[in-house]
Every structure is written in C-alpha cells, then in structure tokens.
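Page 47, continued from p. 46.
Same chain as before, 188 aa.
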Amino acid sequence: MKKIGLCMVGLILVLVSTQIGVTSSSASSYDHWKDLNDDGIIDVNDLQSLASVYGTSGDPINKTELLLDLQDRVEALENQTVPLGYIGPPAYDSGWVSISQPGSETLTHNLGTTNVHVYMTGYSEAYYKTNHAFYGSEMYYTMTGDLIRYGAYWCVLTSTTIDVVRLTDDPSWEQIRVQMWIIQEPPT
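Result:
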C-alpha cells in the first residue's frame, strides 16, 4: 500500500509540474527508450502507461542486444541474396579427376554436411568433350546378348566424402568433375 501511495504522489507531482510549467534546470534530451507509447513526446501518457504496470515483474530484455541480433540476421540474409539468375561459387570443386573404366573414386570434400546440391560433369577427349551423356547409367543388351553399361553417377555421400562410379563400357566419362553447394536453411 505504501508503494501505491508513493507512486500516486509521484504521479501527482509530475502532473502538477507539467501543468504549472515547472522545468528542470538541467537540460535533458529525448530518449526514445523512455517514450513508451512511441509518439515522439515523453509526457504524462508515458507515465500512465508505466503506472499501469507498476509492481509487476518478468524477465528483463536487453533492447540493444536485440537490435544488434536483428541487424546480424538482416546482414546474414543480405549476404545470402544473389542477383536473380546467378548461382554463387561452389563450396567444393573437385576439379577434373581421371577415373578408370570401370572404376570408382572417393572424393574428399570436408564440407561437414550432407545438406548439399551435387553437380557432376563428365569429360572425354574422344567422345562428347564436356558432357552429361549417360549421367546416371544406361544398360542394354546388344543383338549378340552382350550387356553394355554406359554412364557414371555419384553415391555414398557423407559429411566429408562422396563416391563417384564409372561403368564398364562407358566412353564419355574419362574424367569427372564434382561441384557441391551447401543448401542454406533460412534463419529462424
């Protein structure tokens, strides 16, 4: 009860001082954090808002920290934004890697995630040059009953490696290049 009485006395003093034009001898500047109703004026309406919640408690917040965190999030989003129609450089690029026929290679990317987009390209000097011919695999039987296996593909993706495979009869994947982009999740 004593606190309510003191609050009322403070409220009355503020009301009286604003009505009769009492001013402080020290110059104060506007503080937007104290303008509780965001109207650009610190006045009795702000005091009324404060008086209505007097005596309540809760978890305090650091408004400056919140603003800095928000600014960091906005900058992170801006850094993720690329011009329309443009894809940024890959997080991993194997360069051209020779692969035997048939054969497999384990490439080390060390990206620390499997949440990636994988793009694989083949190269053969004699057949198609840079290509995606038979990407994945294509198998068929010839008229004589021989099984023909063309193509190359990737498999067994871990957070540090990826395996690439070239099939037995493939002419178009003498070299393989794997590029990977980390898929960024939107900030929460």
